[in-house]
Amino acid sequence: MVMDHERQRARYIAGTEGAPPVPPPGGYRGARRVQGPVQTSSPSLPMATASAPDDARKPANALGWIALLGTVLFALILFGTLIAGGTDVLYGVTMLALQLVVVAVIVAAISTARGRMLGAIALVIALLFNVATVGGLSALQTSASGNYDGVKTDEQRHAEAYPGIKGTDPQTVLAQQSLEEVRDEADALFADIRERLSERFGYTWTQVGDEDLRPERNGYGGESMLYEYTSTVWATNEPIEGYDRKLEVLAAIDEVVVERGLWNLYAFNDPANSGIDRTMIAKLYGSDDPRRQHTWESYTENYPDPLRFYANIYDLSNDPDGGFRAEREAQNARTGEPLAGLQLAVLASAVLSDDDREEFEQKLTEYPGF
Length: 370
What we know:
Elements: H1 2-13, H2 54-57, H3 62-83, H4 87-90, H5 93-110, H6 116-128, H7 131-145, H8 154-160, H9 170-175, H10 179-201, E1 205-208, E2 212-217, E3 223-230, E4 233-236, H11 243-259, E5 266-267, H12 278-285, E6 295-301, E7 307-314, H13 323-335, E8 341-351, H14 357-364
Antiparallel strand pairs: 1-4, 2-3, 3-8, 4-8, 5-6, 6-7, 7-8
Helix pairs in contact: 3-5, 3-6, 3-7, 5-6, 10-11
């Protein structure tokens, strides 16, 4: 047993002449292992540490802030001008020059690393709110409201208040029937026609709608003191059908209008007399043959006075495809007027109210060259 142990020991230490003796198997009694860093034969190298660029840790430069604040301020100026209605100011040289300055500052800010972020934000704001976009909104607002004061001269504003109508002699307006006279004449004319047709044909009547007064434009961008008058409409409750019956009804109306000093009735729908192209007559009245037309339209006036009288007959029996009935039903739904029959109306343009006559004459003295 001892000999085997010695052989193993001899093999273990063979070829180790001059070296320190090795410890016995299992180590020396009471020995402790000391753990330390493992040394290598290669020289130690310093560890590389990643560090962010200095610019990423630094705040934006002053140029970026100038670009952003300048763009916001310019946008506020644009909106303030928009609210004030200064469309002409938005498209003025000063505003365009300011926008160029803002653009130059934005470009300069974007070209620097520390101002690029704020410059990009300023660019987005500038693209959304600039002379073109805000100026377009201002132009739309001005067009919708009709407020062009910002671009008008004193002469234009003066002309805008002209009481008459451009191209119409104010003395003609003063010499013709007034608004009240036209209204009275229309009422009397309607009454006579209703009475004549009721006696002769037994028709009954319905009044449709109310009269309408619309201020006339004066041709200089403003409103005149004159009105366009549209009377209430009188309509028969009974339909009027048949070529001969229509002629009889219009003949009776013609008698009344001539008695009251108007001209004889003029039939727009009759190709023999109206002078309108037959294709247009067929489009307007359903056919170029009065016997097959769904609408007859007659007209007269009391020139040189402004009253114009219309008598229309709507006949659903001359409606082969039902299209005209659909139109009349839609009109009936809007106004409540009868679907078919005769309708009477009066229209007068550029009429002056008696209440405004004195003021009209006074204002005309301010416009000697008009």
